[in-house]
Amino acid sequence: MNEHRSPAPQDTPQLTGWRRFASPALCYRLAGHFIRPCTKLAIVLTLAGLYLGFFVAPTDAVQGEVYRIIFIHVPTAWMSMFIYLIMAFWAVVGLVMKTRVSFMLMRALAPTGAIFCFLALWTGALWGRPTWGSYWVWDARLTSQLLLMFLYLGFIALTHSIEDLRRADFAGAILALVGALNVPVIYFSVKWWSTLHQGASVSLSKAPSMATTMLVAMLLVALAAWAYTIAVSMVRLRHIILMRERRSTWVRALLDAQEQKETA
């Protein structure tokens, strides 16, 4: 939707201070401002990162050309974990502050997190075949990452299977909080258990163990994944808001304005 402005929520209580951001009408309007710039940023960063990674970065002395899969695998794995933690954060906000938009944000983020999780597993399998001789091994990190995929799919299925929105939001929030315990297991699995999966190449506590070009390419793709996540989540959030608030005065006024614009 190109319409970023919406009428004031005439049938919604006026909120003051930071709580005004819990207004679906305001969130709908703000979300619209992020879509276009984040989409452009995601495209530019993706092209730049993949160009550096696939055409400029040197060939790895040990793994050869197959290592270039990491420029997709690592950023998607990062995002699959980050998004679930963000979902858990909004679950806490929604349960404590009783803000409907928080639960809407959880739903908006879940499909994107599931996609990134699938890509991380798929690219990991492509990397594992020439490196380990198998597409899949029951490695601790791979198994916990697979569990994360099931948690995403379970969240989506659970929230869509319950007709009562409040009950669905509550159940989804509980699953998001419980499932968040799996994220540190994924991250620390290579330290806690003896696994085939290599340790982190990028760490805040030590210098990166890769060439600068490789690091820049990976970070660019990671930033592109963030921009993409924001863009598509905001599109999905606006759709969810319209569906849930369709009986509100401001939504009816917005839809009427769009119909008049289309027929003009």
Tell me, rounded to a whole number, the average pLDDT: 86
What is the tally of helical segments?
Answer: 8
Give the oligomer, counting copies of the same chain as homo and different chains as hetero.
Answer: single chain
The count of strands amounts to 0
- Intertermini distance: 17 Å
Structural class: mainly alpha
What is the strand content? under 5%
Question: Gyration radius, to the nearest Å?
Answer: 21 Å
Order of helices and strands: HHHHHHHH
Q: How many structural domains in the coordinates?
A: 1
Helix content: over 70%
Judging from the principal axes of the Cα atoms, what is the shape? Answer: globular
Taking the sheet with the most strands, its summary is: none
In the predicted model, the low-confidence regions spanning at least 5 consecutive residues are 1-13
How is the topology of this model organized?
Blueprint: H1 24-56, H2 70-97, H3 100-132, H4 140-161, H5 165-179, H6 182-192, H7 212-244, H8 249-263
Helix pairs in contact: 1-7, 2-3, 2-5, 2-7, 3-4, 3-7, 4-5, 4-6
Structure description:
There is one protein chain. Helices cover 72% and strands 0% of the residues. By secondary structure, the chain is an all-alpha fold. The protein has one domain (41-255). The radius of gyration is 21 Å and the shape is globular. 35% of the residues are buried.
